[in-house]
Design a protein that fits this description.
This protein has 175 residues and is an alpha+beta fold. Helix content is 27%, strand content 33%. The chain starts with a strand and ends with a strand. 30% of the residues are buried.
């Protein structure tokens, strides 16, 4: 396995839109239009490869000039998935580089998982990641709005996990 930062926009777009051709429930999030919106907000686009075959990809998105979301638009290609937390194995191979990249650029990394119902998935991911990295994650209390222009969409209210000082500037929902 090899984990690479892809700086060539056309190469990154080609890999990204391959996800739109799958039967994944979120395939619409991987259109060329979505890529163009994301590219300018990312500090990097990252791909985990099995030789020349992409296994998974994601971006790191900047929030409020001080935070960056790792695993932004995270996608694991179907042939590399399993029936449980499909991201767990592959994301564990990616986590330290993503965190270090954020810290090196002066951002506090966080990741998010949709909706209060998936809080347990965020907690399991944190427990797993914390085995592999020196900066320890914690799932924050409450859910936070990751898309301030779409507050009415329940999927935009997400569980946030971040490293110390364990805070974020996003709007929270106390429920």
């Amino acid at each position: 396995m090899e984990f690479k930062i892809i700086k060539d926009k056309d190469k990154a777009k080609h890999i990204y839109i391959q996800a739109s051709l799958t039967s994944d429930e979120n395939h619409a999030n991987y259109s060329e239009e979505q890529f163009e919106k994301a590219w300018s907000a990312w500090i990097g686009f990252y791909v985990l490869y099995n030789k020349l075959d992409p296994i998974a990809f994601c971006g790191i998105r900047i929030f409020d000039d001080q935070y960056s979301r790792i695993f932004d638009r995270y996608f694991v290609f179907p042939k590399y998935r399993n029936n449980s937390l499909a991201h767990q194995k592959w994301s564990s191979n990616m986590i330290e580089l993503l965190v270090d990249e954020c810290i090196d650029k002066g951002y506090q990394p966080f990741f998010s998982i949709q909706t209060q119902k998936k809080r347990r998935a965020a907690e399991v991911a944190v427990k797993t990641f914390n085995k592999y990295i020196k900066h320890q994650f914690k799932v924050l209390d409450y859910v936070y709005c990751t898309v301030p222009t779409n507050k009415e969409d329940p999927n935009c209210w997400q569980n946030i996990a971040t490293i110390a000082p364990y805070k974020i500037s996003l709007e929270k929902k106390d429920e």
